[in-house]
Amino acid sequence: MTTDKEPLGQSDIPEEESAYDMALQQFNEAAEVLDLEQGIAEYLRRPQRELTVNFPVRMDSGDIRMFTGYRVQHNLSRGPAKGGIRYHTMVSLDEVKALAMWMTWKCAVTDIPYGGAKGGVTFDPKQMSSNELERLTRRYASEISVLIGPEKDIPAPDVNTNPQVMAWIMDTYSMHHGYSVPGVVTGKPLEIGGSLGRLDATGRGCMIVAAREMTRRGKSLQGATVAVQGLGNVGYHAIRLLEAQGCRIVAVTDSSGGCYSDPGVAPELDIEKLRAWKASGMPLVECPGVDYITNEELLAMPCDILVLAAMEGQITPKNALGVRAGIIIEGANGPITPRADAILEDMGVQVVPDILANAGGVVASYFEWVQGLQHDFWEQEEVEQRLEKVMSKAFEQVVAMSQEKKITMRKAALLLGISRVVKAIELRGIYP
Ligand code: NAD
Q: What is the per-residue pLDDT for 392?
């Protein structure tokens, strides 16, 4: 791979921007191409609603600790707000605003009738007992209940949250109302109104777009080498489904680092064993019997497909030139900064952008919401077929736009998503 960019000296590389700066930069570039009216562009740059909550939680020790959480609704023009809830030490209002804006574009790219939202609480869930986590979740759900609701804003799982957390939120909201309100969250356990196929839907979406991109290149997933950053919900299911299509997983990491397997030399990675190791609370780098790598080494791993399924800001101008993958699938939100994006474009690396690549989760969440509202639940096969249809259509529309305008898939996805939101605003008009 070559690049005509001058290699940057370490001191020339500017500090990376925040997630919200990244989201704004992407939006501004798209707004310019779309020639958006100034007022509409300004409307879309700002979240419609931002809620910060400070709340107490009784710890197992008997002490009271204060926590800060957020819920942001970016834009509601296309329908109720939709977006995950994240538990992480790095959660900030800025990050939640960025993630909410990306949700708006994601729902529009896949043409599902939602606006974008996101929420989170700033803390390390690994340092909490299950009882403390339940009390924190219930109190946070109460605090944001002024915004959420099945017709208003429907949370879902994100980093460090899962179906159990969704069940606690659903129960708390239902207790306030005096009856069960399953439609207030998606990503619920099946027993209380979840959908078959929701748990692995984001990973499945990553697999679907990876297969489409390989087909576009006259290749298939059979025998393709894949490296994956993040072995959580998205990363694990992406790996499982890519392996089922004949891919060879050459490396996987979590926040501690991870392991690799040289094709033709070492035996294949046993993903179920690695997953079980992680589920026991142990970091990947301490798993016995594997060859270790750092996250930086994973990002520079020679492979056909690199799946980024961890956090934002992973590929920056500092490490972009080291990337040796042909295709990057953004399973995570915002894992590549705008300046790194430009470098990868020059290098000829095809990035399938987050607002398309990881949309499988919100599409299946939409299916769960629809099934719940109709009290009519679908077979797994039906969920998977519908997901494949929605993801494939969105992929083809983004590719068509990128070819027509000779722009990257990210810019094309943004143009498609933003123009659909703008159309909804125009049709509805500016109130009053
Ligand atoms: P998760 O909590 O299940 O897993 C996150 C994984 O990333 C963990 O294995 C963690 O160890 C790893 N990780 C964290 N920081 C890392 C780092 N610096 N380097 C390497 N690995 C690191 O979370 P998830 O639900 O799989 O979400 C992952 C990403 O996908 C997030 O960006 C999230 O917003 C996005 N996403 C998730 C969904 C969903 O349905 N869960 C949908 C769309 C997008």
A: 98
